[in-house]
Write a structure and sequence with these properties.
Layout: E1 31-35, H1 37-44, E2 51-56, H2 58-63, E3 74-76, H3 79-83, E4 95-100, H4 107-111, E5 119-123, H5 128-140, E6 145-149, H6 158-164, E7 173-176, H7 179-188, E8 192-196, E9 202-203, H8 204-207, E10 213-218, H9 226-229, E11 234-237, H10 249-261
Parallel strand pairs: 2-3, 5-6, 5-10, 6-7, 8-10, 8-11, 9-11
Antiparallel strand pairs: 1-4, 2-4
């Protein structure tokens, strides 16, 4: 990236002339709107992203680690103007980027990769903050992908990207039509499928094998659906105290990924 030099670009437009309106991070068809330094910077550094336009304060541009290309579509704006382009009260940090959504990732491509890296499967986890947080943990613990059902998961959005803190650009997100069928494909590729449930008869540490692992987590409250549970090789629990009934799904994913990363 090459950062524009002061004076080289005129300040264009106020809020009344800026494109788009407030939203969760979905922009025009086929595009997403990202905000926050980590999410925007990661997207700018992702060669697989097609960038459409960056709205930013001068301080926001200066915070980027690198420089924008000379002809990058940049429009300077005041913080209040940027707030109109993102979800209500979203911490944009002076940066709002509109870009094309990422290309689809196919399960077969993930299964052809490094089997030593775990896969995270989410069953009807619809909260974009949770999905983003799981992506962040997946990146931290070197997971090769997350897998969700296409219909019962949030779309790629600014909210997901902000919660993922840059991990949306690093961790492949596979969307499938049928999660049970996807779990069958994962098993055929040699992965041991471990569902996480508070009522599991064994702990995660006891259920972990030496080989490839796919961790399966359900939505808070409902948990994994019965058909998904039937497609797991084991159902395990995290050894939490009775003081707390359950953990947030993103916290459970982080703990489970740590357990996989540190197994002996």
């Amino acid at each position: 990236m090459s950062r524009p030099r002061d004076g080289k670009r005129a300040l264009r437009g106020r809020a009344g002339r800026m494109e788009g309106g407030r939203g969760s991070g979905r922009a025009s068809t086929g595009a997403v709107r990202l905000w926050g330094r980590h999410a925007v910077e990661a997207a700018l550094n992702n060669p697989d992203r097609n960038h459409r336009k960056l709205w930013a304060t001068r301080e926001g541009v200066e915070s980027l680690d690198g420089e924008l290309p000379a002809n990058f579509p940049l429009e300077y704006a005041a913080p209040a103007d940027l707030a109109r382009l993102v979800a209500r009260d979203a911490p944009h940090q002076g940066l709002v980027l509109e870009c094309d959504a990422l290309e689809d990732v196919f399960l077969a491509d993930v299964l052809d990769g490094d089997a030593a890296r775990p896969i995270v499967v989410l069953d009807q986890v619809t909260d974009p903050h949770n999905v983003g947080a799981v992506l962040r943990s997946a990146a931290a613990f070197n997971a090769c992908a997350i897998v969700t059902q296409d219909r019962h998961a949030p779309p790629e959005s600014g909210t997901v990207a902000k919660s993922a803190s840059g991990a949306l650009e690093a961790v492949p997100w596979v969307r499938v039509v049928n999660l049970a069928r996807a779990l069958d494909e994962i098993a055929e590729a040699g992965y041991w499928r471990i569902g996480l449930d508070g009522d599991g008869t064994t702990t995660l540490a006891e259920a972990l094998p030496e080989g490839p692992v796919a961790l399966v987590l359900g939505a808070e409250g409902e948990g994994m659906r019965h058909n998904v549970t039937q497609h797991c090789d084991a159902v395990a629990r995290l050894p939490i105290t009775r003081t707390i009934e359950s953990l947030n799904v993103s916290n459970a994913a982080a703990i489970a990924l740590y357990a996989v990363a540190t197994r002996i």
